[in-house]
Design brief:
2 domains
């Protein structure tokens, strides 16, 4: 089975000198302090234990996230697949940035699944924000942080605020996992559990690895016919790779031009 890790991060904002509140084009020479990692949270898919780390007070004041980046690196190094909401554009590039700036090598390669991309490609929700999806799908919602003040308190090194940020971060990961479970059966592109399994006696679901499948109809291309399966555990659809049509039928099949 693939090792699937749900990941979410929280970062400090960029602090910069600006002349106004609207439509600012901020140059790099206006930056007072760059962003850094405040907290991270993660859990293995359908495992009870939650993982996470946060800056201590002095680390936040020093903007030193090296320790927590090492603890995150160790988890990512074990993962086959990483799940995130907007992970491909935000979480993973941000994580990689802090890795390289802290002089760290990349963890072992993994594949990513972005629930935001699934939401955009397969559905037409009024909003694709994680909090909205969680409420709409009936699986929960984010913790109310009280606004930007929490980030301000974290950057000021308030230890209680950093713990609040970690608690907020961990709830995001629990919500992410539940939203992923709801959306995953509709995803047409997903890493295959079957490829990670050996000595298979029966077909297994490529999305969740279950062998509780039933045959239901066929999938057709212009030339071929494949047995179709539905997973009784996650409700995903898959098909066999073996063509059910005979060579004689294939030879008689005409292709449109």
């Amino acid at each position: 089975m693939l090792k699937i890790l749900h990941v979410d991060i929280e970062t400090a904002p960029v602090a910069a000198y600006v002349w106004g509140l609207w439509k600012n084009n901020v140059g790099t020479n206006q930056i007072m302090s760059d962003w850094f990692m405040l907290t991270w949270s993660a859990k293995w898919h359908h495992e009870p234990e939650m993982y996470g780390d946060r800056l201590y007070s002095q680390e936040a004041l020093d903007q030193d996230d090296k320790r927590i980046m090492y603890s995150l690196w160790k988890l990512l190094d074990e993962a086959d697949v990483v799940i995130g909401h907007n992970g491909d554009k935000f979480d993973i590039p941000k994580i990689n940035t802090r890795f390289v700036l802290n002089g760290m090598s990349p963890p072992s390669p993994y594949r990513s699944v972005d629930t935001l991309k699934i939401a955009k490609r397969k559905f037409k929700f009024s909003s694709n924000r994680l909090d909205y999806l969680g409420q709409l799908l009936g699986v929960g919602r984010k913790i109310d942080t009280g606004g930007f003040q929490l980030w301000t308190r974290c950057m000021q090194g308030e230890d209680a605020a950093l713990q609040e940020m970690l608690d907020y971060n961990q709830q995001d990961v629990l919500l992410l996992e539940d939203v992923y479970d709801k959306l995953m059966p509709f995803a047409s592109i997903h890493p295959s559990h079957t490829a990670a399994q050996e000595d298979l006696d029966d077909p297994t679901c490529p999305k969740c690895g279950s062998d509780d499948l039933h045959k239901r109809g066929y999938a057709y291309t212009n030339m071929s016919k494949f047995q179709r399966f539905r997973c009784n555990d996650c409700s995903s659809w898959s098909r066999s790779r073996i063509n059910e049509r005979s060579k004689n039928d294939m030879h008689k099949t005409l292709m449109p031009i």
